[in-house]
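Our example copied in:
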Amino acid sequence: MATARPCGIYSVRYAQELAVLSTRSQRLGFAALLVVVLAGPPLLLRSHLLSVLIVIGVTIIVMQGLNLLLGYCGQISLGQVAFMAVGAYTSANLTDRLALPFLVALPVAGLAASLVGLLVGLPALRVKGFYLAVTTLAAHWIILWAILHGGALTGNIYGLSAPPAAIGPWALDTDARYYVFTAVVVILLSWFAKNLERTHAGRALVAVRDNDIAAETMGINVFAYKLLAFFLCSFYAGVGGAMWAHYSRSIHPDQFPFIDSVWYLGFLVVGGMGSVLGPVFGAVLWRGLREAVAALVPMVAAAVPGFAGTLYSGLSLMLFALVVMLSLILEPRGLNHRWQLFKASWRLWPFSN
């Protein structure tokens, strides 16, 4: 067993170096954190704050998928919101029209989105960088056009209603119950992403990201791993979209704007690409800034009435852009890198200096 020493962690086996939680104190701290995350907010917070945390949880899921594609495989996507829409409409149809259980519709929605992601990822072997971004941009508008003209299957411009989520006889019809379910899904999918990076497939994805030509020379099937990255990215987005559909109880094409795909990318960079905590930091900061702007707008509108009509959208866009620019200048490796430096300094104190 790895042990904590004043100057760091002493490991005697390679498996201990790879362990996510290598010491007893880390395992106890993680268990305490789980208790606080799962039980604290439902007991202490009001409904509005719980709804904000639910939205943050859905955002973390979607950004974790994008991190597997961009952070680990180096492939860019501007179609994440469209994949969310596929998952949302799939789950709404399965639960409302076919009366399938929510726990069955949720993974099926992720699979439906991942199949669409595979179709989008097929050109990934031939194009990269800017050209791949344009390809996924086109996929976004094609998917949204199909939803707007999908007839009774998608409700056209009117959208669809989604029944409340339920796990067997337990209905997730309150913010507290849905928050606990969302937190569990976030933990499970984040844990899967963390363990994926330590597997052969995860190392192959990183090799493709660093240099796909060198990876292919070493015998890695570059095309297969790029498709795997698109599959996983779209699956996470589909699951997030399905969870959003059953929380909001209704879905509409306007709920999936293209600009959100851009902010997913931007705040993934702010949080830190290539790390499991990066999407968590990015999602919390992005949604937190939205709530801060929403709270600030009434005060600014009262002081400057002439700007009240467009103040929220304009102020939020300027603030998001400013945060992304400052992050690229001051901490291009993201908030997670700063967190890792803090942990290393704390672990090595008083020898860190």
The chain has a mean pLDDT of 87. The beta strands are 3-5, 8-10, 160-161, 166-167, 170-171, 250-251. Residues 208 and 278 are 20 Å apart (CA to CA). Residues 222-248 form the longest helix (27 residues).
